[in-house]
Amino acid sequence: MEEIIEKIVLNKDLHAKWLNTLSFMENAGARKISACEDKIATSLIQLKHAAEEHRHAYYLKKQISKLEVTGFDFYKPETLLGGQISQQYLHRLDVLASKYLKSQFSIVGQDLKYAAYLFVTYAIEVRADELYPIYQNILSKHNSKVMVKSIILEEEGHLEEMILQLNEFDKNWKVHSSIVNGIEEVLFRNWMDVISDEIGLHEFAE
Prior knowledge:
mainly alpha; 7 helices
């Protein structure tokens, strides 16, 4: 991952696409959280998460202006890295996680939506806790004007909040989260492979 992100950061056009892709994914996450909200029983934490993910999407999009590039006003496919894999990443995780959770808890409707919100968001926060610090270290190494330190701090807080909610949901949540996180790991590796090929690096490997 470090090699991939470093090559991206050293090329302003790739870097702009990377930021736009991260912005797209943060925005998709915010929309997913909002879609999982109950019309009545929506918690303060859910509202906070949706608002902060939207703000992350906005912040990342604004960072593109520091690269002095144009053409990134929207999330057009040609302005993203990873193509359809990036566009479908979160949706695929949500679908696969929902199928697993439905089989384990025998829940449907709003209950399933809420369970998916908990486990999918947790998996994404675990990933964010890994990816953003690596990205920031590379930005700092190359004295980039782009910064993601504020996002790192908020994502750490999100992870703690998700753990609290998962503890309330099911005492054995770690067993199920390991499965959902495993699904996310496969999707993430596929995503890195596609981006690696797109920017001309060797296939992603641990």
